[in-house]
Amino acid sequence: MRTVMKTCLIGILVIGMTAAAVSCKKENPAKLSSELMPLEGNPLVHLKVLVKVGSAYDPTGKEGLAQLTWNMMADGGTRLLSIREITEKFYPMAAGVRLNIDKEMSVFSGTIHRDNLEAFYAIFKDMLLDPGFREDDFTRIKTNQVNFLERGISNNDEEFGKQVLNLMLYEGHPYSHHMAGTAESVKGLTLDDVKAFYKEHFVQGNITIGLAGGYPAEFVQKITADFGKLPGTFTPKLSLAEPRRPNGLEFIIAEKQTPSSAISIGFPVALSRSSDDFFALWIAGAHFGEHRQKLSLLFQKIREQRGQNYGDYAYIEHFIQGRDKFPSTNYCRQQQYFSIWIRSLANSNRHFVIRQALLELRKLVEDGISEERFQLARTYLLNYTKLYAQTLGERLGWQIDSHYYGYQDFLAEVQAQLPKLTRDDVNRAIKKYLNFNNVYIAVITQDGEAMKKALVENTSSPVSYANPDMPREVLDEDKIIQDYKLDIKPENVRVIPAQEFFQKKGIPQK
Amino acid sequence: MSRFIPLVLAVLLLLPAAPLLGTDSKIFPYDYKIEVLDNGLKVVSIPLPNPNIISYYTVVRSGSRNEIEPGKSGFAHFFEHIMFKGTKKMPRAAYDDFLAKLGAGTNGFTSDDFTCYFVVFAGRDNLAQVVETEADRFINLWYDEKMIKTEAPVIEGEYYSSVSSPDRRIFELLYDTAFEKHSYKHSTLGYLADIMDMPNQFDYSQLYKKRFYAPDNTILLVAGDFDHARLMDLVRKNYSGWEKSNYVLQTPVEPPQTKAKRGHIDWTSRTLPRLVIGFHGPAYSDEQIDKAALDLLAEAAFSPSSAIFQKLVNQEQKCQGLNAGFGDNRDPNLLVFSAVLKNEADLAYVEEEIFKELERLKAELLPADKLAAIKSNLKYSLANGLGTTDGVAGTLAGYIELTSDPGTLNKLFDLYEKITPADIQEMVKKYFVKANSTVVTLTTGGAK
Predict the structure, then answer these.
(1) Interface mutation vs chain B, best among A148, A272, A301, A309, most B CBs within 10 Å
(2) Where in chain B is the domain with CATH 3.30.830.10?
(3) What is the pTM of this model?
(4) Under CATH, which architecture does the A7-227 domain have?
């Protein structure tokens, strides 16, 4: 258990205008906390209100309530102003309130030129502290949420595949449902549900106020006083049971008419950024599948050598892409999962590429990483992470995440810890946390039953190439991949029509 | 193991990184220098206070606009992929290793008019290596037919990555229907038939490179923590041997549209109904008021604070989203209004409301306070994006490709300042004519 540093808002002292975060230990879990990053002379101010409540806190049968409630604040009127009036007032400042929501935390944020800080904050404050909870906003926002679940989510097969994998990873677990809930649960939500959820969870102890940039010193006192009027209570942190581990290779094929297949593969890992082994496994993850970088072994093997698709990546924790290709911040979770993202590819090649990804995973677990690749991946991470925190929102976001996971400055810790690691540390972490026999695989594709038959019967899956002169070593490896035997039991392959997902809780039953 | 280390790194990052907005200041507030090599390569350098980070952008002024020959749609984007194949001196694998060790944020992207490559990296000491490596790959790119045949199916994969998106399809059909001759007719990704033929295009790829990947068609844009004189020494040393192309592109002239057009897509899986309306508009200009006035109009008529947005999205709740997108292009392109609806039955109503709003804007002058709010929004929106080296280089790249002059951004915002409600009204009358419109709808047909 690590000590988490927090900034207490009560009795805070801002030392000069260039002071870094003033930290003291948070004593009272029912009071506000804050993360401050004053930057004298910076013309922008970034403001975050982080709530340590996300979709995992949705009451049973009311899945989607956290998202609906927070959206009623971020995209609805206040008691005094309609959303139209808010939009009109924000418009000349190019201002807005952004909401990010995850399983265990949600963030309201905005970046504003300091010329407009006062005018922006007057409205921002009311949106969060004095929301209107108006009927017309409720109808609009709830309908959008239902439409997304019924008719939006399947407009992006790759994202759809990731969400089906999430259902498999967390069946019966608070992380299981989509942040938006299910069509059935959201249709049943009422404005009273929203008001009750707000009253219970939008309370001091759940909230961290984040400020970065050129805000005046007295602004801290102002925001502290305003949010300090919220009830001095808190929601206890979820006590999460271990998610169910896959038993063998478990498939869900979400079937729809499509020329291409989107594939997501994964399993839970008992590790988070707080774990001592995190840095070692992170190097393994960067080597195996760094997000949208050519360093990724899967990218090299599947895309660069064979031209199968646009990209292939792997992650040792939940990953959301932020600016450019960098990781987003403030998606912290108590429990994590390992995943592989195979981007859409021609249906004819789906079986081959699933075999290839699982074979590469097996080689990673059995053979580990070479010294050369270890050095390369480590050097890469040491340099690439220097680019992570550039905007005000990113800097503050990394500061908040650092503290969540028990670091004063996680990115500085990267520079301190990575040079100490050896290839053996990485290979030990791989063996400890990764496996290739017990894995969930979600596939969005067509002709599901034919695919199931081929998988279960281990039908040979050769591929052909436009290039008649493919390198000999690639063709030799293909012969191994195309007949790589996978032990897939028929009862472990479920073929389910795509449109049945996210309508009701859990994985649709046949 | 202690997780607590001094705050030195955090303090080092605490430098101002975005401009102040004053009434007299230029919208692009940073000083920049422009130098042109004898071979025509233009270099724009913007030293910034962001500590130890450099964004190195190469802007090739060739995009899908340059795909004027039949069967070659999508080629600019395909060639962007080929540009990562390495050289004899530094083959692909060595190039990938170089970037991995550098820990660089790197990629390329292709748009209508240009293709942009960027390397964002930490460490000013790495600049020399980056200049040398980037110059080598632009001058000495080497690939063979086999590499083309392996890379081409990746484009097919990229096509598949968004095949489930109804938005992509509806915009593809809009441009394909609205344009008769100009290469804006096809998307940057290209027609699927042309994508499938890319494995056979080795010879054309060589011709394409010769025509467009040349110093007289390229701009280097470097922003961040470096010394200008040092940068120029490196650039002269590494790029001076690059030969000019002298190729002059003649894009086909689009004939005026004289009759309203329509298209429809029956989507096979469940989605919300969609509507897009395109009008042929003017090319980008920082001198003629047409496009600048229409930029302001797009905001006035369709931003979330506009009357029609409030009516259709918030009050009547017929639409989930409503948008106006008037892109900046070197040649005249479409001014597009788009709507995502909740019910198919409202398609005709929403279409009528958009046309009615345009008619209202022909009859009524935009209130002066509304225009002032729009100008303010555009200024702050731009300023908010200039906080990183990438924000600066990326924003400027999108303007510099249009005129090859970084000063165009300030000229454009000066032009915005001069535009009056009467100017906007005149442009609405000039461009939003029914005969000049193309409407495309998308509904789910059988897939309810």
Answers:
(1) A309
(2) 29-239, 261-443
(3) 0.92
(4) 2-Layer Sandwich (3.30)
